[in-house]
Amino acid sequence: MKMTIIVPTDFSSNAKYAAEYACELAESKDYGIHLLHSYTTSSVLDEGAQEPNDPTLKADESIQELKDELLQRHPGLSITFECSRSLIIDKLTELSSNNNYGMIIMGASGESQHKPIYYGSTTLAVAAKSEIPVLVIPNKPTQLDNTHVALLTNFKPEELDTLKAYMKWIANVDELTLIHVFKDSNKKQNVDDTLNSWAFNIREMVGIGHVNSISEQVHNDDESLDTVPEVVNNLIDQVNPSIILVTPSRKTFFERLFKSSVSKAIALELNKPAFFEKV
């Protein structure tokens, strides 16, 4: 059976960026696309409409238009769609348990341009509950690029499952960088030895030839210094991967990564696609 990607949409620019990315992936892997919209007040009626019971709702027209737009750029794709009266999180959780769907691809945030991922809880809630992988796309045009993958690592066996799931659904990994942040109670040499050993294990067990690693120490005794989320964000910028992989055990950490820093009040936003392995 052909794998189908669920693509939630509220018809915002951010959602369309995710839909375009999903279509590019679907073309490369011969997947299908299923567009999903949950009705909201703004998506039910056009401005000035007087008939709330009109069977042809604004969202029904918008989702058909979105399908047509995507097929113009990707004419060979199989695209289905539905509009649901369920809450988006509930509907996605329901569909993720259906064997007909293999992955969810969605934007980091929805219609509001002023609510990045750490304010709007929908994306993270879906990633936390979904029984299939969730790929989160930044709020900007993002081309399909799998040349360099980064993994937030804490030397856990489930990270191997995350890598294997990514390679199954997205692409083989040519270059992988392991990112690890540690507290100042640990000696850097000991941490680096463990990191190098873990990189070797990944090369052997997953079959990835080129595995790099990078680590950084966090000093908790000085509030003026960077927090763990800031350090990780800086390392991601330094490594500049095509995509970030997140294991189920790291989801809470990933959520903290994109919240504002208490010490510096810095809002860190997702700027790379992030692949969340299923729960």
Question: How would you sum up this structure, described in words?
Answer:
The protein has 279 residues and is an alpha/beta fold. The protein has two domains: 4-137, Rossmann fold, CATH 3.40.50; 149-276, Rossmann fold, CATH 3.40.50.620. It is built from nine helices and ten strands. The chain has helices spanning 13-29, 41-44, 58-73, 88-96, 122-129, 158-169, 188-206, 228-239, 251-257, and strands spanning 4-8, 32-38, 79-84, 101-107, 134-137, 149-152, 175-183, 210-218, 243-246, 274-276. The chain has a ten-stranded mixed β-sheet with strand order 3-2-1-4-5-10-9-6-7-8, with helices on both faces. The longest helix has 19 residues, at 188-206. It is elongated, with a radius of gyration of 20 Å.
How does the SSE layout of this entry go?
Elements: E1 4-8, H1 13-29, E2 32-38, H2 41-44, H3 58-73, E3 79-84, H4 88-96, E4 101-107, H5 122-129, E5 134-137, E6 149-152, H6 158-169, E7 175-183, H7 188-206, E8 210-218, H8 228-239, E9 243-246, H9 251-257, E10 274-276
Parallel strand pairs: 1-2, 1-4, 2-3, 4-5, 6-7, 6-9, 7-8, 9-10
Antiparallel strand pairs: 5-10
Helix pairs in contact: 4-5, 8-9
